[in-house]
Specification:
The protein is an alpha+beta fold. It has a single domain (7-167, 179-183), classed as Jelly Rolls. Helices cover 29% and strands 26% of the residues. The protein has four helices and ten strands; from the N terminus they run H-H-E-E-E-E-E-E-E-E-H-H-E-E. Strand 4 and strand 5 form a beta hairpin. Helix 3 (113-122) crosses helix 4 (124-153). It is globular.
Length: 184
């Protein structure tokens, strides 16, 4: 049985600041709290983006594949408590642009992307506020990515290379041997 996300949980993070009680309740009802072990993948790049995550504890790395087989990844950035990932679930074409892997044991609030979008469509003022915050996150990730890529192009060490098994065949899912976090 999973634990639902509480309104109080959402209220404590800046991403949700200024949202009224009813909106917070609607968002909380779309979510669950999940636990990820070190090495668990939350999502892989190019997979359908179904959820927005809020890190409650631990850390998660945003990674990009460096080869077609996706056996090597570069760490773009590391996210900690209060940070948001999975913004692709709120923007077309609703595909993850990067992968996300727990670098430590982590606890996250996982919010349903399609339901979040429905709420934003029904309340354009909320949608506008959220999309401004998403734009800020995207800009920050682009800065992180540009530093990573510049280092790679210049032949210097990038933040870190991570080697792992190749991704699954077309059809989705996680690569063999990669674990998915579980609801708590």
């Amino acid at each position: 049985m999973s634990i639902m996300v509480s309104i109080e949980t959402l209220r404590r993070y800046p991403f949700f600041a200024g949202l009224d009680q009813g909106t917070l309740k609607s968002l909380a009802m779309t979510g669950e709290v999940i636990a990820a072990k070190e090495g668990d993948w939350l999502f892989e790049e190019d997979n359908p983006a179904q959820a927005l995550y809020v890190v409650q504890a631990g850390s998660v790395e945003i990674r990009i594949a460096l080869d077609a087989m996706r056996t090597r990844h570069a760490i773009v950035c590391s996210l900690g408590k209060g940070e948001i990932l999975g913004w692709s679930s709120l923007t077309e074409p609703y595909m993850y642009r990067t992968g996300a892997c727990a670098s430590t044991a982590a606890r996250l609030a996982k919010l349903n992307g399609p339901q979040f979008r429905q709420l934003m469509d029904a309340h354009p003022d909320v949608g506008y506020m959220i999309m401004r915050r998403v734009a800020s996150i995207v800009a920050s990730r682009l800065d992180d990515l540009s530093v990573c890529l510049a280092s790679l192009v210049e032949g210097g060490p990038i933040q870190q290379l991570v080697y792992g098994p190749p991704p699954p065949a077309l059809g989705g899912g996680l690569p063999a041997g990669m674990k998915q976090p579980h609801a708590i």
